[in-house]
Amino acid sequence: MSLPRPPALLFPLQEGTQRLHDAMKDASYAFGREDLPFTDLAGKYAEEIPFHTLLKQINETHRRGLDVGGDDA
């Protein structure tokens, strides 16, 4: 019995998020003003991606930056 093929959109999403993760691990990541490469694909198939909201938030953080200089005492 063969397993069903995953949707073709999963491979570009996996590749894009893996590149992002690798860049963070090797300290080559930089926030940017442009959307992440997988954002259009994630938006196009939002109804089929249960974690679409997470991908959207990751993209927003990439574009707007991350405020980590709070006064958490």
Can you walk through the features of this model?
With 73 residues, the protein is mainly alpha-helical. The protein has one domain. It is built from 3 helices and no strands. The protein starts with 9 loop residues before the first helix and ends in a 9-residue tail after the last helix.
What layout of secondary structure does this protein have?
Elements: H1 10-25, H2 39-44, H3 52-64
Number of strands: 0
Please give the count of helices: 3
For the record, the count of structural domains works out to 1
Uncertain runs = none
Mean pLDDT: 87
The ordered string of helix (H) and strand (E) elements is HHH
Question: What is the CA-CA span between the terminal residues?
Answer: 57 Å
- Let me know the largest β-sheet: none
**Helix- and strand-based class?**
mainly alpha
CA-based gyration radius: 15 Å
Q: Helix coverage percent of residues?
A: 40-55%
Q: How would the global form be characterised? A: elongated
Strand content: under 5%
